[in-house]
């Protein structure tokens, strides 16, 4: 049996980890960075960079470069850098720079002293492994251990030190059976990322929660081939847990609907008169509006939270 943080790290980023598979995450599920929604999101991020007079976009947890490909299509003048655990994807446009990361919270040493950069961590922190704890029958918070092969769980040592302090401060609970995903490694990973920017804007985009609205059962789950499955840290599935977004160092914390509407994305359908005057333009606008609507939809991508930190 292993603590969830250790088992999770190995399952996603070990030598045979899920994120090192040839197909990558896109072989198992679609995210907001893919397809039509990805094109709209890429254009919105290009606008965010322009609004802040930033010339470099860095995507942390870039997958196979899908989001950066959309940013490039929207604004070819931007410098682009992708960061992920895999080597540079062969199909990626040569204008996109690439850094290979160790995985999880660890970032490449070369990612440093960023000036004039918009740094986007899109669904990165939810796959930064963290300890999982559960309140026992005596009301004590204890580490949850897991069998990497079967997913069977048991309770281990009491939570203590900085982990207990984090849980007590940000996710207090004493009801037997309640679970806590200790976000301290995510807070530290985010602080590390922010520290690498001399001047710019750093944005974390993720499914998350805030104080007063923590899920008592936790959120740890898994996905395989488009289906939600039981979380088993054997390398065969994605493992993810929502992020305590309010504990990240931030200047703004808003939902994606608010963030994207501020960048001109609202999902409204084009005027029907356009269908008569320019049918092709109408069909293009209709496709874009449909993609935008998906990005701001309640119960879906629109429920993402954006934590924004401005540096310098």
From TrEMBL:
<dbReference type="InterPro" id="IPR003788">
    <property type="entry name" value="NDUFAF7"/>
</dbReference>
<dbReference type="GO" id="GO:0008168">
    <property type="term" value="F:methyltransferase activity"/>
</dbReference>
<dbReference type="InterPro" id="IPR029063">
    <property type="entry name" value="SAM-dependent_MTases_sf"/>
</dbReference>
<dbReference type="InterPro" id="IPR038375">
    <property type="entry name" value="NDUFAF7_sf"/>
</dbReference>
<dbReference type="Pfam" id="PF02636">
    <property type="entry name" value="Methyltransf_28"/>
</dbReference>
<dbReference type="GO" id="GO:0032259">
    <property type="term" value="P:methylation"/>
</dbReference>
<protein>
    <submittedName>
        <fullName>SAM-dependent methyltransferase, MidA family</fullName>
    </submittedName>
</protein>
<keyword id="KW-0808">Transferase</keyword>
<keyword id="KW-0489">Methyltransferase</keyword>
């Amino acid at each position: 049996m292993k603590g969830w943080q250790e088992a999770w790290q190995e399952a996603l980023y070990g030598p045979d980890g899920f994120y090192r598979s040839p197909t990558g995450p896109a072989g198992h599920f679609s995210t907001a960075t893919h397809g039509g929604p990805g094109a709209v999101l890429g254009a919105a991020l290009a606008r965010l960079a322009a609004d802040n007079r930033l010339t470099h976009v860095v995507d942390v947890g870039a997958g196979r470069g899908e989001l950066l490909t959309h940013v490039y299509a929207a604004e070819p003048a931007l410098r682009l850098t992708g960061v992920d655990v895999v080597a540079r994807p062969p199909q990626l446009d040569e204008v996109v720079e690439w850094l290979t990361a160790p995985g999880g919270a660890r970032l490449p040493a070369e990612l440093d002293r960023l000036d004039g950069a918009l740094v986007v961590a899109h669904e990165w922190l939810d796959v930064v492994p963290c300890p999982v704890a559960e309140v026992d029958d005596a009301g004590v918070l204890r580490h949850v251990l897991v069998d990497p092969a079967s997913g069977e769980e048991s309770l281990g040592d009491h939570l203590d030190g900085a982990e207990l302090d984090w849980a007590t401060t940000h996710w207090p609970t004493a009801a037997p059976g309640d679970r806590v995903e200790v976000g301290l490694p995510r807070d530290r990973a985010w602080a590390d990322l922010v520290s690498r920017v001399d001047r710019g804007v750093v944005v974390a985009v993720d499914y998350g929660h805030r104080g007063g609205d923590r899920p008592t059962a936790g959120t740890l789950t898994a996905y395989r081939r488009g289906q939600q499955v039981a979380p088993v840290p054997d390398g065969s599935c994605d493992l993810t847990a929502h992020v305590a977004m309010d504990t990240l160092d931030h200047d703004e914390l808003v939902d994606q609907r608010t963030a994207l509407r501020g960048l001109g994305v609202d999902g409204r359908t084009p005027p029907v008169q356009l269908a008569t005057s320019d049918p092709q333009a109408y069909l293009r606008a209709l496709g874009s509006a449909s993609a935008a609507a998906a990005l701001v939809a309640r119960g879906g991508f629109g429920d993402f939270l954006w934590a924004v930190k401005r540096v310098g």
